[in-house]
């Protein structure tokens, strides 16, 4: 009887660690393609794939290394792509997926929880969704608080929309320890040197770096 029974084919499951690596590399490649588009450059000409790849890798890995000035080279679209890569790389892509799942009221399955635990470097699955929620709320709170404080200094200097945009960009970049900035309008590659004597900017950025560096 057993001879006539067919064994069910084994479904090869991808390990959570491989999923993390695959998605991470995919994000970098997608980011590089978007940054290489002419629309991502301020002058309407492509920055080139390799420079775009370097920038996307640096942003996703939150290293802060650049080969072109972020403000003078990239358009608003390019800057949005960069800050999105920084945010996803800083808090983790599984956190972003959890946000969408929560908004869609979709149940988070066991496999997704395992991938979350792997991405966060945690061995236990118990309470992982609750932890991710705390990370989301904490990140939003500190980045918003940092942006509001920076607006008091940036809006008078760059105008309303310019100040708001730079405030959020700087706050997210500092919290994620990314090192990117939009101060190239003052002087290319100058970073925050213009604000070397500004107590509010310095204390706000330093606090965001420390809090973000400590992590969840």
Account of the protein in words:
It is globular and about 50 Å long. It is mainly alpha-helical and 216 residues long. It has helices at 16-35, 49-60, 70-73, 76-91, 93-103, 110-120, 128-158, 160-175, 199-214. The mean pLDDT is 84. The chain starts with 15 loop residues before the first helix and ends with a helix. It contains 9 helices and no strands.
SSE layout and pairings?
Blueprint (H helix, E strand, L loop, with lengths): L15 H20 L13 H12 L9 H4 L2 H16 L1 H11 L6 H11 L7 H31 L1 H16 L23 H16 L2
Give descriptors for this structure.
single chain, globular, mainly alpha, 63% helix, 216 residues
Q: Compute the CA-based radius of gyration.
A: 21 Å
- Structural class comes to mainly alpha
**Helix content estimate:** 55-70%
Output the number of helix runs: 9
Give the distance, in angstroms, between the N- and C-terminal Cα atoms.
56 Å
Instruction: Please provide the count of β strands.
Output: 0
How would a crystallographer describe the biggest sheet? none
Which sequence of SSEs, written as H and E, runs from N to C? Answer: HHHHHHHHH
Mean pLDDT across the residues is 84
Which word captures the global form? globular
Low-confidence stretches: none
Strand content: under 5%
Quick overview:
The chain has 216 residues and is mainly alpha-helical. 63% of the residues lie in helices and 0% in strands.
């Amino acid at each position: 009887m057993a001879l006539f029974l067919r064994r069910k084919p084994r479904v090869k499951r991808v390990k959570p660690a491989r999923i993390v690596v695959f998605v991470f590399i995919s994000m970098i490649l997608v980011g590089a393609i978007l940054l290489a588009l002419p629309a991502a450059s301020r002058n309407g000409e492509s920055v080139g794939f390799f420079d775009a790849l370097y920038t996307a890798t640096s942003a996703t890995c939150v290293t802060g290394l650049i080969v072109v000035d972020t403000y003078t080279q990239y358009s608003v679209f390019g800057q949005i792509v960069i800050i999105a890569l920084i945010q996803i790389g800083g808090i983790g892509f599984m956190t972003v997926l959890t946000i969408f799942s929560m908004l869609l009221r979709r149940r988070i399955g066991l496999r997704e929880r395992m991938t979350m635990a792997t991405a966060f470097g945690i061995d236990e699955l118990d309470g992982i969704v609750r932890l991710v929620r705390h990370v989301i709320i904490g990140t939003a709170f500190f980045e918003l608080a940092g942006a509001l404080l920076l607006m008091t200094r940036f809006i008078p200097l760059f105008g309303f929309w310019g100040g708001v945009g730079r405030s959020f960009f700087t706050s997210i970049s500092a919290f994620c320890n990314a090192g990117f900035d939009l101060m190239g309008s003052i002087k290319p590659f100058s970073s925050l040197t213009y604000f070397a004597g500004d107590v509010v900017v310095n204390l706000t950025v330093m606090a965001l770096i420390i809090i973000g560096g400590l992590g969840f």
